[in-house]
């Protein structure tokens, strides 16, 4: 095993140069703490400008906190949140949303390709309305989804109309929001507030920061007292500028979008190479920066032995993630190793 390379996750990547540069700049002198600094003001204003609306913006350390605290602000402990059965809030947050809300339950819906359907939401809302059932109060959508697909603006608006009908707030887990914007080639407002999203958790971590997620309330009423919720949960950074300055680095000249476009393009290159490979099939349509493929087990073993790292999950398929730091040469090396295996090892 001569080298170690990865398609394991976009959070294996480092800090992108523009974010690193902004962090170095913020390190030049002392600044007020707890978000009272100029960087935090600039980053929040930059996000308001990006979304073209007067939203409320908060910064927290990670995605689990962003989702959990945002969802907790959307209802009471006796309410419930409807999400897809594959949603990160259900499968990978260790009960964080339920904990932050003092017990609000997640209700699991379904839909092809990791996407909740309006029908599934309506079914969960209407199947019980009695006092013994946790009252649905929010819908959580992941954009892009856990399986690398995206909700179109039309799909989002259809979900919003069901949400309106049943008085549900709409939360968006945007761990890969940037990749969704890049894939759909829309203005960020088109798949958020213009499509009825109340709160977006916009990830900087997977886009090229060390850490830091923006919790963006388009529905400003829901943001009431949110800063206290963050503080109580241990999510108010005292040296906030080290989260917000890198965000300024991402926002300037739309670096966030370039990073996402690059990651998506690498995944597309990977997808095209895999599609030509015998014995390999794709599990989901590739729309953003991840490819979900069924690779023969001996091929997986061969690749891992060559030093490639990637995860298997969601029904056992291999998930190959690209990030801002993935190179096209790296994709070529991976595909060359697969070609090598096909030539020498296939029976
Ligand atoms: C990575 C990710 C998160 C955030 O995870 P943290 O490890 O808590 O930062 C949230 N949602 C999805 C879909 C993710 O992939």
Q: Which key terms come to mind for this protein?
A:
347 residues, alpha/beta, Aspartate Aminotransferase, domain 1, Aspartate Aminotransferase, domain 2, 2 domains, four-stranded antiparallel sheet, 13 helices, 40% helix, 17% strand, binds pyridoxal-5'-phosphate
Describe this structure in words.
By secondary structure, the protein is of the alpha/beta class. It has helices spanning 17-26, 38-51, 63-72, 88-91, 96-100, 118-126, 153-165, 177-184, 226-232, 241-251, 255-275, 297-305, 328-345, and strands at 5-6, 56-60, 79-84, 105-109, 135-142, 169-174, 199-203, 213-217, 281-282, 290-294, 308-309, 311-313, 317-321. The protein folds into 2 domains: 5-12 and 255-345, Aspartate Aminotransferase, domain 1 (Alpha-Beta Complex), CATH 3.90.1150; 17-254, Type I PLP-dependent aspartate aminotransferase-like (Major domain) (Aspartate Aminotransferase, domain 2, 3-Layer(aba) Sandwich), CATH 3.40.640.10. Strand 6 (169-174), helix 8 (177-184) and strand 7 form a beta-alpha-beta unit. Helix 8 (177-184) packs across helix 11. The longest helix has 21 residues, at 255-275. The protein is globular. The two termini are 24 Å apart. The model has no long low-confidence stretch (mean pLDDT 96). Pyridoxal-5'-phosphate is lined by residues 62-64, 88, 142, 146, 173, 175, 205-206. Pyridoxal-5'-phosphate binds next to helix 3.
